[in-house]
Amino acid sequence: MIKLDQIPVKQLKGVSALKEQELHAFGLYTANDIILYFPFRYEDYRVRDLTEIKSGEKATVIGTVRGVPVLQRYGKSKSRLTCKIQVGIQLITATWFNRHFLREGLIPDREIMLTGKWEQSRLQLTVSESEFLDAVKPSAKMDTLQPVYSVGGKITQPWIRKLITATLEQYGSMVEEILPYGIVQKYNLMNRAEAITHIHHPGDFAAGQEARRRMVYEELFLFQLRLQAYRALSHRRQAGIAMQIDSQWIREFAATLPFELTDGQKKAINEISVDMRRNYGMNRLLQGDVGSGKTVVAAIALYSAVKAGYQGALMVPTEILAEQHLKSFTRLFDNTNIQVGLLTGSLGERKRRDMLASLQMGLIDVVVGTHALIQEDVFFSKLGLVVVDEQHRFGVNQRSILRQKGIHPDVLTMTATPIPRTLAITAFGDMDVSTIRERPQGRKPIETFWVKHSALDRAYGFIRKQVALGRQAYVICPLIEESEKLEVQNVIDVHITMQQAFPDLQVGLLHGRMSAAEKEASMGAFASNESQVLVATTVVEVGVDVPNATIIMIMDAERFGLSQLHQLRGRVGRGEHQSYCILLADPKSEVGRERMKVMTDTNDGFEVARRDLELRGPGDFFGTKQSGLPEFKLADMVADYELLEQAREDATELVARDSFWHDSTYARLIEWLRNDPLFQGEQID
Ligand code: ADP
Ligand code: MG
């Protein structure tokens, strides 16, 4: 039997070769895509009482024509048509612009439906629709919610509406249920065919809402099913490495550290080593606020893997960070015989070749690197553990490529962007989560000030005082997304200004356009206190660790997202000294002011994340599109949070049942999983 997704759009009525092209550009290839092309909002034509309508609102009313229409013309094509209409007990004036041809239809006593903007004080309705509809003969729009689709180019609103309606009429009966019967029952969900029809043509409001609830649940359930099935499969497959890790090694290694591990670190290390000993692939997310000490946790995991006879890899998003991790690992592994190597894009060709050979021969135990690690020609001798730092910077695909370089190596991903539990569950539903909540003892909370740009001189004075005490300062210039050139120009300008403001100090410069060697030199000078002030872009955002730096001044702070501000602030407060964050900002909006307030109110990344979510919704949370957070068609991660949790429970419960993998009842879901790229090469049965 032919399926909806086997019917190409060009077979649909009214789709010419040209329109076919345009539909493809919208990602619409089959009849299935067409009926699943959901409206992003509705135009509300439900008839309302005038008394319910606020001035300035758009509304649909039914009224009776009273009196004679008046037409005024201006110039050649402009006109204004007015007519008295009785709506309920009120006599109002309906006004049309440039619709002179409607005059003939305004016959006294005719009952009509009008949609437009209501102005209470003048008792006037400025009609926005080009036609008026007879209230006596029911019409398509009458008293309905009309779908509004995202359109463009040759695809117009009326055209796509017609196409969808026609496709539904012709093929709607072929829509199959995909959710298990038990779940449809449990939540009393509308069946799939009916729900899809009602999403496009809600009819009454309640039916529209029910349809939406059904499709949102489906979307969330399928999303979770994919993650949970993947996770269940990797557990069932039991093909992971069961490393023989001795707890004694960990204790001995910890004893060589210059500090005592925090309870959170200990707990995380424990959870990780339990996973590593198991015979299925670890897939764990380690989240902890900036400065909570994730690196040493990663080091202990890598140390254990090497002691157990495997290689380890650490992938980080920037070269600066790679260099820095290389240094700290070399120091941490000083008293061991572990060989640490570096692999980044800016290694010379010969060094790179040497490194690749050493990795393949197993001469290097732990390699630290950037994207360069996931190139095709990188091979390991015995890769057992992959650690990915600042994981939100990498896409799921990049993570899985690295994973494929070993035979089911264990994977630990780390993030300093605290994610509220709800979001963690959604975005990383396939991972186990370890969380470090506390920071190492003795750290004083960073004091954060928000000042206007007019107070720049005072901020300078503050920096000067700290430097006099032997401390150092970061000055951060914002990312200018529209133009990297402008951005670089901006940091260079600020750098010059700072040099003038602090003629007696060394002021360093760091931005993305510098060569790797220049960056390293600049970072090195700052780390060794040869330069006291570092003017930088957000390239220092992640991971950079200079404990003697105690001030970070962020210019145009209102241009940053909250999570980014918190990350930047985490560059200070990494040593024993009291640290400060100065936000220079003149926010224009209420939300902007609120963001500055959140920063001055709290130091806790989880709290910042929570407030951020409240202020902006999850879509913006990471400030970038590459957040790694899923984008849903219908569902809203915050508003539909309860459904999301239910969907997760249902999916987890379902994949745990043996019948799910074998019973024909679930054949459609299994088929759906098989078609997913995530399951390519997986044995599903
Ligand atoms: P992040 O979690 O942000 O990656 P790091 O791993 O860079 O944090 O650690 C921040 C700093 O704290 C480093 O200088 C590290 O040596 C230090 N540190 C880590 N754990 C502890 C601890 N338990 N006690 C004291 N200092 C610690
Ligand atoms: Mg870090």
Walk me through the structure.
The protein has 685 residues and is of the alpha/beta class. It folds into four domains: 1-38 and 151-172, DNA polymerase, domain 1; 46-143, Nucleic acid-binding proteins (OB fold (Dihydrolipoamide Acetyltransferase, E2P)), CATH 2.40.50; 247-436, Rossmann fold, CATH 3.40.50; 447-602, 3-Layer(aba) Sandwich (Rossmann fold), CATH 3.40.50.300. It is built from 22 helices and 21 strands. A seven-stranded parallel β-sheet has the order 11-12-10-13-14-9-15, sandwiched between helices. A hairpin with a 3-residue loop joins strand 2 and strand 3. Helix 5 (192-200) crosses helix 6, helix 7 packs across helix 9 and helix 8 packs parallel to helix 9 (294-307). It is globular and about 95 Å long. The two termini are 24 Å apart. Residues 618-628 have low confidence and may be disordered. Adenosine-5'-diphosphate is lined by residues 259-262, 265, 288, 290-296, 416, 440, 543, 545, 547, 574.
